[in-house]
Specification:
15 strands, globular, Rossmann fold, seven-stranded parallel β-sheet, alpha/beta, six-stranded parallel β-sheet
Length: 373
């Protein structure tokens, strides 16, 4: 008999609207923990979404969906239908299924009916369910209550699912992880800046990242606190940002887009990581290098990751809050180093790909027909 705490004894299917490249390591790790393997059914985003997708998985299998988008994803009436789903289900024949817990994906109910007809469990995976009213709210609630279990990205998301009446004992929290538990020791950093602090941003250079606010905040800092600001990434706003930096903060550097080993020296040399806009895939990676972080509050996925002990969560679009957080961070080197150590501990002990896989296995095994063992 297999160890239920470490594996899933069946064949797993997983439906995604799209397959972002950053999810591949998680799906491969989850597949390796499934005796029958994992197949991921996913399609392509609209070009305006600028999502870096992949169809390359090492352990898991990939099946291409044909996404039909109704309106733009930012439109309040956006929906998506995935063609090819019934054929994939018949071919893969999963013992359990994981679906994004989003009622806007119109083919999901058919997949749920296919599984229910065969008495097989379906797990929903999502951000949560913020309070709302109207017909769409009722539609969302009815959709969510059909799942056998729910996995939330955050504790806030779990509370929202419970608030809709979903049984709390069937809700699991798997904090959104994009990096494995660090294997390298935390970089050693001096107890003073030499000669000035180094602040790092990593991400796509686009409007929603609020990099102009970061440049302006650095320019307004007292002279002794002004950091060497390194902005890593590329995107549609790069030329505008370089022009703005030349005018108000010439100390900013733009090395371009870097990945993997090319990024490591920048993380090791930094004293602080800042992401004042939406997104945040690089936050956890920064924490694996023992960096305190400043992030904007969002959908709740950062709540469990960024705490007063290791960073600052600021209100979105609040330039004063960003400036205040920078002043606090750069005024006390000893405290900053302690916060960096806490960042490293969090991603080592609590929030990483291994822990995320473990929560999904707990959810699967809590509802799976154990007669298959």
């Amino acid at each position: 008999m297999m160890d239920f705490s470490k594996s899933f004894p069946g064949r797993l299917g997983l439906i995604q609207r799209v397959l972002p490249g950053y999810r591949a390591p998680f799906f491969d790790a989850l597949s390796a923990a499934c005796a029958g393997g994992l197949s991921v059914f996913a399609g392509q985003p609209l070009p305006v979404e600028s999502i870096a997708t992949t169809d390359k998985l090492n352990a898991a299998r990939f099946a291409q969906a044909r996404n039909v988008h109704i309106f733009n994803p930012q439109h309040p009436l956006y929906f998506c239908y995935q063609r090819g789903l019934s054929g994939w289900l018949a071919d893969w024949n999963p013992d359990a299924l994981i679906i994004e817990a989003n009622f806007r994906y119109l083919s999901s109910p058919a997949a749920m009916r296919w599984m229910k007809k065969r008495s097989r469990p379906v797990i929903g995976w999502g951000l949560g369910a913020p309070l709302s009213r109207g017909a769409l709210s009722s539609l969302r609630k009815n959709f969510l209550l059909q799942f056998d279990a729910l996995v939330a990205y955050s504790a806030r998301g779990a509370e929202q699912y419970a608030g809709l009446g979903f049984p709390a004992k069937k809700i699991f929290v798997a904090p959104n992880a994009v990096a494995a538990k660090p294997v390298q020791p935390m970089p050693a950093r001096a107890d003073r800046f030499d000669p000035q602090p180094v602040m790092l941003f990593v991400g796509r250079l686009q409007t929603r990242k609020r990099i102009p606010s970061l440049l302006k905040a650095c320019a307004e800092l007292p002279e002794q606190l002004k950091p060497r600001l390194v902005i890593i990434g590329d995107g549609p706003e790069r030329k505008n940002l370089e022009s703005l930096a030349a005018a108000i903060y010439p100390a900013a550097e733009f090395p371009g887009a870097l990945h993997g080993p090319d990024l490591a020296p920048y993380f090791r040399a930094a004293d602080l990581f800042a992401l004042p806009g939406t997104g945040g895939l690089a936050v956890q990676e920064a924490m694996t290098y023992g960096l305190p972080v400043i992030v904007a509050q969002g959908d709740g996925t950062q709540d469990d990751l960024v705490r007063p002990q290791n960073g600052w969560q600021i209100q979105p679009n609040d330039d004063f809050a960003l400036l205040f957080a920078l002043q606090q961070a750069l005024s006390d080197v000893t405290r900053l180093r302690q916060m960096g150590a806490e960042s490293y501990r969090i991603v080592s002990d609590e929030i990483n790909l291994e822990k995320m896989v473990g929560v999904f296995l707990d959810a699967l095994n809590s509802i799976f027909n154990r007669d298959l063992v």
